[in-house]
Write a sequence for this structure.
């Protein structure tokens, strides 16, 4: 008998817990977008901390924002009826706690680990854990975003933590460095490899468990993203008819792309095949016009939570470069001002910043749009995956035509490093798979 989405997700969590209870030294959980990765981290952390031995669990994250979000989620879990636990927030000396958690009775903030001994869970960035006295030891720890963590960030803390649960999304953006990394490329334990890859190399017996369900991506998006970017397939946690967008105003008042996205979940706005600079003004104008049409279309959101009007904060625009972001924000500010909305009513940012966030509708400026070549940066499968997997309802992609020819006529020119692990997915394969899908939704 086939499992429901909820049962499959629960089974993956229980398999993870069983591996930890059986004494596995390292466990790696591969999570697709919106698969409940943070929920699993908190559930495993809570279970381990509340065992009869009451042992403290370090939770390693990559940024202060992620650490604060993790603390918030632990607090919400306690308020929702789950067993409450004391949470420590280990931080740098100049860190200022966000107002919403600063005075919470269940959280203790401190720049030193010794003052957090009574906390069952301690959350901090990898950079802060590296500053902890290495005479400290923990029998078990959790590393969140293990595919976005560089190996050199794991090295200073691994010796303090006897067993590790690593959780991350293998299809998202890999960590990077602005330093010259050629001296490290191809080495079996390169410091610029991901923490997850290094653990798999040094501990080949690692228990690896995939999460099988995305609760963010709708039915019409999960299979596309899974086929293009992931080795372990996953499905959507919602049924075909569970989510939909209804445009309330007359169709003549909006554009075809918005109607197509509302009807099918996807729309591909293809501009003329012209090589353009990164700040393509026609692409910027098109994105601004689409946002205007979306906000004027009186869209209603229907999903498993109920129904409600679409609000500006439900909409995001994803771009590749920061200067593109700035130009799009400027164009959006004019549109939003005419609609009586503040300049920052919608989110406009790069894939690196949007990673981990979700919205109802996402507009994407294709990384290869208008380019003469297909460089490794713009061809990065993780970048495209992030941009196309932020939405719960619909995604609209804007691009210059000619991407297929661009991919065919510009083979890879980057050096191949012997001994370096192959990427999870090939950029050419991912881009062509997505292009095949998008062309069926061209407007």
């Amino acid at each position: 008998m086939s499992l429901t989405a909820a049962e499959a997700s629960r089974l993956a969590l229980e398999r993870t817990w069983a591996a930890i209870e059986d004494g596995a030294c390292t466990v790696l959980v591969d999570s697709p977008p919106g698969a409940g990765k943070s929920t699993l981290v908190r559930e495993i952390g809570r279970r381990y901390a509340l065992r009869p031995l009451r042992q403290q669990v370090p939770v390693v994250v990559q940024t202060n924002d992620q650490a604060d979000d993790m603390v918030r989620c632990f607090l919400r879990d306690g308020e929702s009826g789950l067993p409450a636990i004391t949470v420590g927030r280990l931080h740098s000396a100049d860190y200022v706690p966000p107002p919403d958690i600063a005075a919470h009775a269940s959280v203790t903030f401190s720049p030193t680990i010794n003052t957090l001994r009574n906390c069952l869970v301690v959350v901090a960035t990898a950079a802060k854990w590296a500053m902890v006295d290495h005479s400290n030891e923990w029998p078990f720890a959790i590393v969140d975003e293990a595919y976005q963590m560089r190996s050199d960030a794991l090295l200073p803390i691994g010796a303090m933590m006897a067993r590790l649960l690593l959780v991350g999304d293998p299809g998202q953006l890999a960590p990077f460095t602005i330093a010259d990394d050629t001296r490290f490329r191809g080495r079996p334990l390169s410091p610029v490899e991901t923490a997850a890859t290094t653990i798999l190399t040094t501990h080949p017996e690692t228990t690896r468990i995939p999460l099988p369900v995305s609760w963010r991506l709708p039915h019409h998006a999960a299979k596309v993203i899974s086929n293009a970017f992931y080795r372990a397939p996953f499905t959507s946690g919602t049924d075909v008819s569970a989510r939909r967008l209804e445009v309330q105003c007359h169709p003549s008042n909006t554009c075809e792309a918005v109607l197509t996205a509302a009807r099918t979940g996807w729309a591909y706005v293809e501009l003329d095949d012209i090589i353009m600079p990164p700040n393509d003004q026609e692409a910027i104008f098109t994105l601004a016009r689409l946002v205007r049409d979306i906000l004027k279309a009186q869209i209603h959101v229907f999903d498993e939570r109920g129904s409600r009007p679409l609000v500006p904060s439900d909409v995001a625009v994803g771009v590749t470069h920061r200067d593109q972001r700035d130009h799009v924000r400027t164009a959006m500010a004019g549109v939003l001002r005419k609609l009586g909305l503040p300049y920052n009513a919608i989110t406009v940012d790069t894939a690196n910043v949007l990673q981990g966030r979700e919205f109802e509708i996402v507009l994407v400026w294709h990384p290869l749009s208008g380019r003469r070549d297909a460089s490794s940066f713009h061809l990065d499968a993780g970048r495209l995956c992030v941009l196309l997997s932020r939405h719960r309802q619909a995604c609209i992609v804007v691009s210059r035509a000619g991407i297929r020819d661009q991919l065919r006529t510009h083979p890879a020119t980057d050096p191949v490093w012997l001994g370096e692990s192959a990427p999870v997915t090939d950029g050419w394969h991912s881009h062509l798979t997505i292009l095949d899908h998008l062309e069926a939704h061209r407007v």
